[in-house]
Amino acid sequence: MPDTDHVQPYVYEAPGTKALHFSINEIQSRMQTSSPYALDLDYTRTMMGFLLFDSAPAMLAMIGLGGGSMAKFCFRHLPATNITAVEINPHVIALRELFQIPPDQARFQVQQADGADFVRETALRFDVLLVDGFDSDGQPPALCSQSFYDHCSAALTAGGLMVTNLHPGYSGHITNLTRIQQSFQEEILVVSDKKCGNSIIFASNQPLTPKFKASAMLRKPAEFDRDTWETIKPALAAVASTFKQQSL
Hints:
The chain is α/β, with parallel strands linked by helices. The protein has a single domain, classed as Vaccinia Virus protein VP39 (Rossmann fold, 3-Layer(aba) Sandwich), CATH 3.40.50. The protein has eight helices and ten strands. The protein has helices at residues 42-47, 69-77, 90-93, 115-121, 146-154, 173-183, 214-217, 226-247, and strands at 10-14, 17-23, 26-32, 59-63, 82-87, 108-112, 126-131, 156-166, 188-193, 198-204. The strands form two sheets. It has a seven-stranded mixed beta sheet, with helices on both faces. Strands 1-2-3 form a three-stranded antiparallel beta sheet, with no helix packed on it. Helix 5 runs parallel beside helix 6 (173-183). It starts with 9 loop residues before the first strand and ends with a helix.
């Protein structure tokens, strides 16, 4: 029986790229076919700013798989990290081979589940939780409610970090920021990605300053090849700059 509860995405291919869409107006994910493990969209690079606070998380979960850009990047460049990607839409998961998402294995799993249910029910605790769950209507209400952010907070290790992608142009953006502040006791960092029109929110249950390692992380880690590092470094520098300005 066909799945009628979830919108089926489509893949748009152009010379050198492959993109996942629900509508032609918005890209959910994009992959450079010559570099399938690279981060092609700027906001995904900004979300990797968690490396400034935790360069080697043991446990990482992400809500929303899309074309798997961040999942693949973390799998390749964080070899000691256990990764769980949670995606509600089976049609999205069905495209994983097309986007060269690795098969499930000991330290990498893709689960079909509601992200809100996952953070509420999981017994695991994560050092990093990436929230980038969007559907054909935008950001689902279940992934930006007060209870969702409360459960995200509870699903983190002591000092763990939630990183979420929000769109300032969507209604309720200020309400969502207020909810995150309430769940994380106002220990948040907001980084605007003007090119993509996103706001990336970094939130923790503990002060961010003691975990901030910009001086070390703006040097290339051994796990990163030079081209990958040169691509992601400007986004990390922007996160570092915003953090320093906020801390003044």
